[in-house]
Design a protein that fits this description.
Shape: globular
Bound molecules: glycine
Largest sheet: 8 strands, mixed
Distance between the termini: 39 Å
Number of helices: 8
Strand content: 25-35%
Helix content: 25-40%
Length: 297
């Protein structure tokens, strides 16, 4: 049986639905996650990842992605890529066709063009509008939260997959809204944003990238599972350690999710709220998590 997870309510639903279709079509576990994230990247109305994501402070969308296959620890990643979709597919091509793990920036874009990707303007009217709000607001980076949507924008979708003792982890992000150009967070970093090892399980992260990276959150969760913890225990242990050691995790969403070898899944969040999609037997359901240090007011 395949189990797949994806993060956040609206973009996570688009991703898990596309992954389920890929599963029903008999695609590999890895390709199911790539197709799930690609669908969320391509969706113009999701203010999340890929097309229509919130840009950096120059008004340009810079994308990062990574994928790791637990069968042989193979991994591929791209970061700081402009005008290319889907970057999770690009990360998979880096993994499958080069001896490297990560390509960055303009050179990653050149690699994409050489592999048949077509340059695109990923800014939509809605994110242009929000970027103008950002430029005009006195406090700048607060503008994007003044949204009338039910759910605030998210910048990352992370997916995990398990099938008969095999694990894959993948993540795609636009990074922090209105970030300094060139800033890279946890998501494309193997060990921070994703990790998978068929000996143990897999884990992923979403939220405040600097803190999750410093915690090596995904690798740490997998290593906690190696020591005998369940997926849920491992996620809680990572977040407990972050809360103890990283004060910046107290008022920002830092999320870790995991799949273990015993059929379990888990997730934990430092502060705020988080929704996880779980797909089993071809159907999906969502589960809500509240922060260990409290939910949003
Ligand atoms: N977790 C996504 C980022 O901080 O870039």
């Amino acid at each position: 049986m395949r189990t797949m997870l994806s993060t956040w309510l609206r973009p996570g639903k688009v991703a898990i639905d596309a992954a389920i279709v890929a599963d029903q079509e008999g695609d590999s576990l890895e390709n199911c996650l790539v197709r799930g994230l690609s669908a969320a990247e391509d969706h113009p109305e999701l203010i999340a990842i890929g097309r229509g994501a919130l840009p950096n402070s120059d008004g340009e969308i810079e994308l990062d992605a990574a994928i790791m296959n637990g069968s042989d620890l193979s991994a591929g990643a791209v970061c700081g890529v402009r005008g290319i979709l889907p970057v999770i597919k690009l990360a998979q091509i880096v993994k499958d066709t080069t001896p490297y793990v990560m390509l960055a920036g303009e050179q990653a874009r050149r690699f994409a063009l050489a592999n048949g990707f077509v340059p695109e303007n990923l800014m939509t009217d809605e994110v242009n509008r929000r970027y103008q709000m950002y430029l005009e607001s006195p406090e700048r980076s607060k503008a994007y939260v003044h949204s009338t949507e039910d759910e605030p924008p998210h910048d990352t979708v992370t997916m995990l997959g398990r099938e008969d003792g095999h694990f894959v982890a993948a993540s795609s992000t636009s990074g922090l809204p209105f970030k300094l150009p060139g800033r890279i967070g946890d998501s494309p970093i193997v060990g921070a944003g994703v990790y998978a090892d068929d000996e143990v399980g897999c884990a992923g992260a979403t939220g405040m990238g600097e803190e999750l990276w410093k915690a090596c959150a995904s690798f740490r969760a997998v290593e906690f599972m190696r020591q005998g913890m369940s997926a849920q225990q491992a996620c809680d242990a990572v977040i407990d350690q972050m809360i103890r050691r990283q004060p910046a995790s107290h008022q920002r969403e830092c999320v870790v999710l995991a799949l273990d070898k015993n059929g379990g899944y888990g997730a934990s969040i430092s502060w705020g709220d988080f929704d996880l999609w779980i797909s089993e037997h071809g159907t999906s359901r969502s589960q809500h998590y509240s922060g260990k240090l409290g939910a949003k007011a």
